[in-house]
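quick one
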Amino acid sequence: MNAYTCFAGAFAVRRSEIFLEDERGTVWTYAELDRETARVASFLTGLGLGRGDRVAAQIEKSPQGLFLYLGALRAGFAYLPLNTAYQKGEIAYFLEDAEPAVFVCDPARAEGYAGLARRAGVLHLLTLGGDGGGTLTDGVREAAEEFRDAPMSADGLAVIIYTSGTTGRSKGAMVTHGNLTSNAAALKDYWRFTERDVLIHALPVFHVHGLFVAVHPVLLAGARLLFQRRFDPKAVLGAMPRATALMGVPTFYVRLLAEPGLSREAAQGMRLFVSGSAPLLLDTFAEWQSRTAHTILERYGMSEAGMITSNPYEGERRGGTVGFPLPGVSVRVVGAYDRPLGAGEPGAVQIRGPNVFAGYWRMPEKTREEFTADAWFKTGDVGQWSEDGYLSIVGRAKDLIISGGYNVYPKEIELVIDAIPGVVESAVVGIPHPDFGEAVTAAVVRQDEAALTEADVIARVKAEIAGYKVPKLVRFVDELPRNAMGKVQKGLLREQLARERML
Ligand code: MCA
Ligand code: AMP
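structure w/ adenosine monophosphate:
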């Protein structure tokens, strides 16, 4: 079934109730949500798009942006959300790879994107600003308010989410309508969402966390979103007395703890704090408990599979673990030859279930590599079971840094640094950071005569790629530590750089 049709079936009894309230107090009811998404679907269909055509969007967070996503689902188009931090070079890659028929961008960026959109074969370059205005809105305003949702099968393509790759080339994870609905239903029940819930939504809406996890269970429950444009700890705190739930990355909780106003009283009316996308430090977990009397519920997921495991709603939420497999999801921790391991033995985390994606866009080889012969998806995470069935993520087999909930693949940054004149080679690692969890850090070998400074390297990288990927720290070294095979010893480098930072 079309995922939107499934959500709409659930919220049909709540049409006159509020779905979303923005920071200025403007509200949209469920009936208005239905009408706005019908208009988007009518408008896009009127442009001549066919089933499965891609609709790419790099837009500031706004209710209209959410309607664009849900409208695209209704019409059977594949939505392709893009991080607002991406710069031209990054956008060019996504457009060329995904070949969207429509690309919606911020009005201020449209002129700069016109050439690359044309080269990528984009048929319609439209705009949508953070204030809800733009050529998309102009078109949508005129479109029909009625729309018959495109019938979609469970394996019909709904969204393409790009995730960075170990080679530096991003892969588009193909998420289906069935993936969305199965995960939404599991989360709504597991986390006990009801029509009485009011969720503070302060996450970006171009990743799985903010776009799926924090929206779909709310739709299924007919609950309400307090929609905040960006994460501001004071605004979140201010909204708590009117809310029941918050979802965030660990950085949210670290920054909220720095607010003197965070107290038991402030969090009294809340029933649920969820953390994910990156490991939540035990200190943060414990401090939150003592300051608010609430226990953060940590869960684990990824773009390719939505949510995979979660700590229980009732029962012990154990810090440092990500809980149990969600209903319908199978998780195994394996050693050599994919042999399942028992409690206490760290191994590769593999998963199966209706939440697992359909493969990487136009990368059949890569897709095959990431599944075992018996069809388990290899997450690239290293996990360990406790005796009583809690999963802990104890490491990553993949060469990945997670900074403030955003994934950064070192290879991509190394390629940019290596292209700077005067650089011989570089290695990028993540070192512990109190705010972002991990900080992107580069060790650079420069040519003897190169008068390159740390600021030069940072400025060059910043000019090319998204800000969150830019190293927070650059260290010049005479050589990179290598093992006997000539491979850079990233673990050793990470330790060296972290130690140096602390001195
Ligand atoms: C912003 N900056 C960052 C990050 N965010 N640097 C490192 N890591 C980051 N995450 C830099 C900017 O480049 C800029 O640098 C400066 O910080 C200020 O930017 P601003 O946008 O004002 O930052 P902020 O508002 O303080 O953002 C921090 C944030 C944000 C609120 C933690 O990063 C965020 O919303 N993260 C959530 C990410 C997320 O939703 N992940 C879910 C992925 P300069 O000053 O030098 O220009 S989905 C996923 O992982 C799976 C499925 C899952 O399990 O959920
Ligand atoms: P993404 O590529 O954005 O889907 O990021 C998915 C990755 O984030 C996972 O493969 C994990 O490495 C990491 N992740 C998500 N949630 C958690 C968590 N609660 N604890 C540790 N790592 C997590």
